[in-house]
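Bug #77: duplicate submission created two jobs. Keeping one. Sequence:
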Amino acid sequence: MKKYKIFVINPGSTSTKLALFENMECKFSTNVFHDSSVLMKFPKINDQLMYRMMVIQLFLEQHQIDLHGVDAIVGRGGSCYALKSGVYEVDDRLLDDTRNARGGLYHVSMLGIQLAKELANIYGGRIFMVDPPIVDELCDAARITGVSGIYRKAVSHALNLKATARVHCEKYHLDYKKSNFIICHIDGGISITAHQHGQMIDGNDAGGGEGPFTPTRMGSMAVTDMLHYLYDLPKEKIQSLCYETGGLSSYFGTSDADKIHALVEKGNPKAQRVWEAMIYQINKWIGSMATVLQGHVDGILLTGGLLRFDDIIQGIKVGCEWIAPVYAYPGEFEQEAMAQGAYDVLTGKIKPVHYTGKPVWTGFEDD
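Kept job's structure:
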């Protein structure tokens, strides 16, 4: 049987996760860190591209990793127009729309397929994208806001959410397309989503500041509070609170969950109060997704880096296990999910989805 060589690139705010697979066997996986003081010198995310490329190439050289003959390079996607779940073969239109953030999401994940393209120019191989953050499967009711002409967007950790569903279904011999789940990615960002028969029909806009507050994001607030407390702040400051300096970072001056949790363990009253409030808000959003599924929930699946703290898992079980059984999958399955997508295309199991350059949803007929 042919052995396919698949390289995976997953950019984060201050690091880039890399993994090399031979078929579905992971040969190495690492997290290449980028000095935040250096990244701050680049005015825009796209400006980081060649710097990150240089760091990745240096890493490959230092560890004597040769990508010549690679069959596929998979980059985490983002920032193009909203699309349906699937494996996309990257073409010039997808690259251009991602580079220009046509879909409105401005996030470092947009560098994933751009880095993949740069590496493919050197080493060859097909380029793929799998379940980017702007996967849109919302039901119609989930799109409506209280202001005519403004609609909710689907922005979530779709890659890991979908991958967790597949892992859970394989483990318990379930069919994702016949099941209802509430799936939560809990880390620096938090996504809480309702999955009905294989479709992610609702969830908080994790990229737009909606939902529970997180280590870096302020979460949902009343509009009147926003106007009263934040109205006079520069737009950049408000955006920073939505993405980087809100949530735990606002209270403690750091988003380092390990440091904050150490204060919780020492009995610091403020740390305990804020930490417990974060869990409280997560539970509220899980409860709201239960109503979306009309109480027909086969399981509440938890994933993400913050599950390394058992009190988060136990807090959610206490708050939500009356809805459905709670299952915890600490960490994430993103690298494996990207490799699996490419492998399924390379082996002919599936065909890649074509990116149309148009949003998967463009409005209601009577708009």
